Amino acid sequence: MPMFEAFRDEMDEHQERRERIIKASRDITALSKKIIFSLQRSTASVRQLQSPIPPPIKKEINARYDAIKQLFTSVAPDLQGLNAWRYQRQISGGCQEYVEAISFQHYLETQNLITHREAHDMIPSGVELAAEDYVLGLLDLTGELMRFGITGMATGGTLPRGSWNNGNEGRDILADLRSLRTSFESLDTSSSSADWSPLKRDIAKKVEVMGESVEKVEKAVYGMIIRGRERPKGWVPDTNEGPERGREPVESY
Length: 253
Hints:
Largest sheet: none
Distance between the termini: 60 Å
Order of helices and strands: HHHHHHHH
Oligomer: single chain
Number of strands: 0
Radius of gyration: 21 Å
Shape: elongated
């Protein structure tokens, strides 16, 4: 019957659109992770904040940014009107990882958080960056800051910090992580999100992981201060949570 044929065509169109968005989101996630790895590697020799990204790495990540923008543009027609919310869950993962990548680069260069407006402007028109994806992307950022800080202590013996300003020593990365922890732990999402929202679904776990990341840096700094300059060459900060957990090696790029 013609009526059921129309229903069939509509369902087929929905499934094809959904699969296109899921594939684009996965590709965006993969490219964003590669950008993060490149940024971690780019500062391996000088673990300081407010430093420019080396030109070879800049060229590498810009090519990946271009590929990500093409992916966003390819699914922009599928995310118009009500479809922006109908398929928000399918594009959410890619948006969160992209926010994590651009916020990490922004922090390394400026030692400031990227704003929602700045992040939104880095996505091609036609694709909306939901506030939930922005917040969850920033929560994931704390894990990269933890890796950056611990690797900096392991390789350079000091905690990464910003440049001097008006005769005052710049903030270190632990101070920024503690500030983020305080802000996120005071965030109330109980009455602002629907059950399907990624914010309501994922924020509790991400806040818990964020807290663990900050504690790892705190313990690494404590160990560095206590041991002082007596640590042997190649010393790695001890980030064990207790005897029941195995040793977690510092992630290096």
